[in-house]
Design a protein that fits this description.
The structure is a single chain. It contains 23 helices and nine strands. With 462 residues, the chain is mostly helical. It folds into three domains: 4-223, no CATH class; 270-419, no CATH class; 430-461. Strands 4-6-5 form a three-stranded mixed beta sheet, with helices on one face. The chain has a two-stranded antiparallel ribbon with strand order 1-2. A hairpin with a 4-residue loop joins β5 (300-304) and β6 (309-313). α17 (322-335) runs parallel beside α20 (375-393) and α19 (357-365) packs across α20 (375-393). It holds the Pfam family DUF247. The chain crosses the membrane at residues 432-459. InterPro entries: DUF247_pln (IPR004158). Keywords: Membrane, Transmembrane, Transmembrane helix.
Length: 462
């Protein structure tokens, strides 16, 4: 147990700052109303020109060196809704401060400047604000329990004042859940997952939910594509080193088992821009067929028979939010290649296969492209994400994908495969022609046999 009688001064200052928010009640409602990011009202959190729905990253949780005043009202309410032991949480984060800073080592100059001019006190403030926002959002969006009822009823939140503030924040998060979830997955908004776990474990609500916070987080995104890999989620075998952040959890639930599509660190990785396989309609010329891969995660399987080949690809489901989701997933893989590059491999294959509207129609016919978007919209999506990987990320591809491209090109250039494909296209253009020919030949043989028996019966009778 923590000895609250001997709290450090910086902890006391933060707790006093939280308590002060309830002294001037006239500013509570306007402060919470500022969450509205419509055009005629200011946003509390901006990334470039895009107003985000609520703050969860720590890099932008400051204005002139300090967290904005109007955000303390949110945190004051949320710590009470969560039943958070603020002292225990802050001491835990102080002990792990070096781990927090190491977590952001990949962030480059922006994060280096942030930590160089940010003392420990403000870092702990930022972690408290960011983790409370994220924990509340997860508890509201998860589908394991009724989080809204649990939060609303916690620590006397049925009072008129707290009920009003809860309703405002609830509507802000839940009004457009897709946008909220996309903001939660932005790479710049990620905070160390052990910080979120600390909020939950030091909260009085953890026993009420009866489920680990990572399990609750997984259920938040069940309605987003790519689809969930149910075998991984229900198997209970979590990554050995734990999760880095929320985006890592989302990526883990959408990919094959660990170890697939790895990158060999000891040799220079192949770049996305170097990857090549012929497009889908051209591959038909070398007796390559396509089939939907019934897998609950992004994957590609290529197999060569004697003179033909089969490429199986997990279906691509496209929605209005798909562009941002793929950017988040691909960005994660390029920052953390040790976890494998399955989404990169899947996208690279589709980007090469789908070059024309005819390619899109072909793979739609085979169940690999599943959406209501027009062919040009699919191509525009692939082109946009491809430029992101080449220009902004300079993405690498897994070694196995490079080997796959070599196999595809070698098979595509085989004379026997090309001849076999030409024979099929000229004499067996589709399966119904083949079935009709076989049926006609069978009928001819049966008729011929019947004629012979009739003739034999006639001569034997005479």
């Amino acid at each position: 147990m923590v000895d609250h009688a001997h709290e450090e001064k910086w902890i006391v200052d933060i707790k006093n700052r939280l308590d002060e928010q309830f002294l001037d009640r006239t500013k509570l409602q306007p402060a919470l109303a500022v969450l509205d990011t419509s055009k005629d009202k200011p946003s509390i959190y901006w990334t470039g020109s895009h107003p985000e729905r609520f703050p969860i990253g720590i890099l932008l949780l400051k204005s002139s060196g300090n967290i904005r005043d109007n955000m303390w009202e949110y945190v004051a309410f949320m710590t009470r809704w969560l039943g958070l032991d603020v002292t225990l949480f802050l001491k835990s984060m102080k002990e792990r401060e070096d781990l927090v800073k190491n977590y952001y080592h990949y962030g480059g100059e922006d994060y280096q400047r942030y930590f160089a001019f940010r003392d420990s006190y403000y870092l702990q403030e930022s972690l408290l604000v960011a983790s409370c926002f994220l924990a509340v959002a997860i508890l509201l969006l998860q589908k394991v329990r009724n989080g809204a009822e649990i939060l609303r009823g916690s620590r006397g939140n049925n009072s008129d004042e707290r009920s009003l503030q809860f309703s405002i924040l609830y509507q802000r998060i839940m009004k457009d859940q897709i946008k909220t979830k996309i903001d939660m997955l932005r790479i710049r908004n990620q905070i160390p997952w052990f910080v979120v776990e600390a909020v939950f474990t030091n909260s009085s609500l953890s026993k009420l939910f009866g489920t680990r916070i990572d399990g609750l987080a997984m259920s938040c995104f069940d309605d987003l594509y790519p689809r969930v890999n149910k075998s991984k989620v229900t198997g209970g075998n979590l990554p050995s080193g734990g999760f880095k952040h929320l985006l890592h959890i989302f990526h883990w639930t959408r990919t094959p088992e660990e170890g697939k599509w790895p990158v060999q660190q000891e040799q220079p990785a192949k770049r996305f821009a170097e990857f090549y396989i012929p497009n889908a309609t051209n591959l038909l010329e070398s007796a390559t067929s396509f089939k939907r891969l019934d897998s609950s995660s992004n994957d590609v399987v290529y197999s060569i028979k004697r003179i033909s080949a089969l490429m199986q690809v997990t279906p691509l489901h496209l929605f209005p939010y798909s562009n941002e989701i793929f950017r988040h997933l691909l960005n994660f893989e390029q920052r953390y290649p040790a976890y494998g590059l399955p989404v990169t491999a899947h996208f690279a294959c589709l980007k090469s296969l789908l070059q024309t509207k005819e390619d899109v129609k072909l793979l739609q016919k085979n169940g690999i492209v599943q959406n209501t978007m027009k062919g040009e919209d699919v191509l525009s999506f692939l082109h946009d994400i491809g430029n992101f990987l080449v220009g902004e990320v300079r993405a690498s591809i897994p070694d196995d994908l490079h080997s796959l491209s070599v196999k595809v090109v070698e098979h595509h250039e085989r004379d026997v495969s090309i001849a076999y494909s030409e024979f099929k296209s000229q004499f067996c253009p589709n399966r119904w022609v083949i079935i009709s020919v076989i049926a006609a030949f069978t009928l001819f043989v049966l008729t011929f046999i019947q004629t012979i028996y009739s003739a034999l019966a006639y001569y034997k009778g005479t």
